[in-house]
Amino acid sequence: METPKQPRSTNYRIREGLSRLATVLRADEWGRAKAVGLNPTQLAILDLLQARPDGLSVKEIAAHLGVSQPSATDSINALEKKGHVEKRAGMADGRSVNVHLSAEGVAVLRQSASDSFTQEAVASLDDDEQQELLVVFVKMIRHLQEKNAIPVQRMCVSCRHFAPFVHSDGEHPHHCHFVNASFGQRDLRVDCRDHEQADPSFRAATWEAFKAG
User: Fold this and answer.
1) Residues facing 101 on adjacent strands
2) Alpha carbon 142 to chain centroid distance?
3) According to a count of CB atoms within 10 Å of the terminal CB, is the N or C end of the chain lower?
4) CA dist., res. 86 & res. 70, Å (int)
5) pLDDT of residue 3
6) CATH topology assigned to domain 10-112
């Protein structure tokens, strides 16, 4: 048992905190999903497809959600029966099939939007605290993707257009070559539609520059 004189490690207590947050986040997602007649996995698939106009394969959806392909297939089939997603031939290979969000699926996502306890919890932090927390999450997600625990995420730090700390402006030190504009830490993206994955060597060099900055 943990006591003031025998505390658990900081690592352990941080994971305890994340576990508590995950419990509330799951409850929030159940509430959102139930309101539109879905389960959380089905709603997560719609969320995932929303920013991907070219669609995703079943394998990609399963990898992003951390579920088995049979489980992803069951959820996709249920969504297809409801008219929330469509299956289309892949653009690169006509023999492959990608899953796309339908107009009905877009409408369902609009209906599912609502305030949540996790949104309120984040809003309780001031702007600087939110920025610091965002950077911490970017670092943790990046570590997980480099360990192949999750697919490479569409974050600034894994994008070939990202140039960290190239501007002297402390509020906007980074540069995005895709839009040719500077931006700050609070503007870092976790899932950007315009993301183009950098090769591993470029990603590593960019990360070292980001950490050094």
Assistant:
1) 85
2) 11
3) N
4) 18
5) 77
6) Arc Repressor Mutant, subunit A (1.10.10)
Element of type H or E holding 133: helix 127-146
Q: How many Å apart are CA 210 and CA 156, to the nearest integer?
A: 10
Q: Is 113 exposed, middle or buried (0-12, 13-18, 19+ CB in 10 A)?
A: exposed
Q: Residues 81-107, buried b or exposed e (16+ Cβ, 10 A)?
A: ebebbbeeeeeeeeeeebbebbeebee
Angle between helices 40-50 and 103-112 in degrees, nearest 10: 110
Regions of the chain short of the pLDDT cut 50: none
pLDDT in tens, 124-150: 999 999 999 999 999 999 999 999 999
The pLDDT, as a whole number, for residue 6 is 80
- The half-sphere exposure of 211 on its side-chain side, counting CA atoms within 13 A, is 10
User: 72-91 pLDDT, tens per residue?
Assistant: 999 999 999 999 999 998 76
3-state helix, strand, coil in the chain (%, to 5): 55, 10, 35
Q: Of 103, 104, 41, give the one whose Cα is nearest residue 76.
A: 41
Give the span between the Cα atoms of 90 and 140, in whole angstroms. Answer: 32
Q: Is the dihedral of CA 43, 44, 47, 50 positive or negative?
A: negative
Residue 212 amino acid letter: A
Closest CA to 191 of 48, 61, 41, 43: 48
Contact 99, 49 (CB under 8 A): yes
